[in-house]
Amino acid sequence: MTYYLDDIADWLVARPSMATFVVGTNLFVGRMHDSPNNAIALIGYEGSAPFETLGGARVPEIENPRFQVSVRQSSFIAARDWSDTILRELCLVVNLTIASKVWQRVMPQGNPALLGYDDKYLTTFVTNYAVQKTF
Prior knowledge:
alpha+beta, STM4215-like, seven-stranded mixed beta sheet, elongated
């Protein structure tokens, strides 16, 4: 069993628009690394309760995790462009099988938002996503 963000990271880097990204090099799961300056992080946080579709004492069928995409870039425009590209790609996740789980939806919870600048004056944008997928 793999962590759901590892699965979506692998799916993202396989997309043609994300060809310059490599998991563990400039796209990270769990936290943003100090380098490189231009990087993306997928960070999970609490979602909503899973759905039990048929009732009774059983493992839930559908889980509802959430995650944040954090984009750090030396250019404001590039950071926003990366954020928009990721948003467009993740909106394509509709009833797709990824790593043997059916992902019903990945839903942005808003547009990319400017988080600010760090001490190196690197721009950071964040976007939050809700997921519905098989448990």
